[in-house]
Amino acid sequence: MIFYQFIEHKLQELNDIIEEVNGPTPWVGPVVIIPKPSGDIRLCIDMRKANKTIERECHPIPTVDDILHNLNGRTTFTKLDLKYGFHQIELNEKSRNITTFLTHQSLYRYKRLSFSVNSAPELNQHVIQQIVAGC
């Protein structure tokens, strides 16, 4: 499979997470392709310039010690699959342009949170804590 076919396949996989951009956009980040040991690729967006302008939400991510302290004395546990956790958080329409990237086919942007956004871990942690609050 040639490189462009890998990119096209990945764009199809992200069909519900990205959208094509029509018209001018103030932001365009280059695509960075990272090969995986499985033979697949990871489609990354170089958002270093855009990340400098993002206002980060200061939401602390708990340490392992914090989590272990909170688990002390608990008897019931569960497991959550958060593999695509960032992609579960929808981006506001006004925030989507900053995630625009260029491929050989077209311009695209994320409709959902991307791991390339520097504030993604804090935002994801905040959402998870809201969801599991009281459990």
Percent in helix: 25-40%
* Distance between the first and last residues' Cα: 47 Å
User: What would you call the structural class?
Assistant: alpha+beta
Average pLDDT reading = 88
Summarize the main sheet: 5 strands, mixed
Q: Helices and strands, in N-to-C order?
A: HEEEHHEEH
Describe the structure.
The protein has 135 residues and is an alpha+beta fold. The protein is built from 4 helices and 5 strands. The chain has a 5-stranded mixed β-sheet with strand order 1-5-4-2-3, with helices on one face. The chain starts with a helix and ends with a helix.
Relevant terms:
135 residues; alpha+beta; 4 helices; globular
Question: How is this fold's topology laid out?
Answer:
Blueprint: H1 3-13, E1 18-20, E2 29-35, E3 41-45, H2 48-51, H3 64-71, E4 101-102, E5 107-110, H4 120-132
Parallel strand pairs: 2-4
Antiparallel strand pairs: 1-5, 2-3, 4-5
Overview in brief:
With 135 residues, the protein is an alpha+beta fold. It contains four helices and five strands; from the N terminus they run αβββααββα. It has helices spanning 3-13, 48-51, 64-71, 120-132, and strands at 18-20, 29-35, 41-45, 101-102, 107-110.
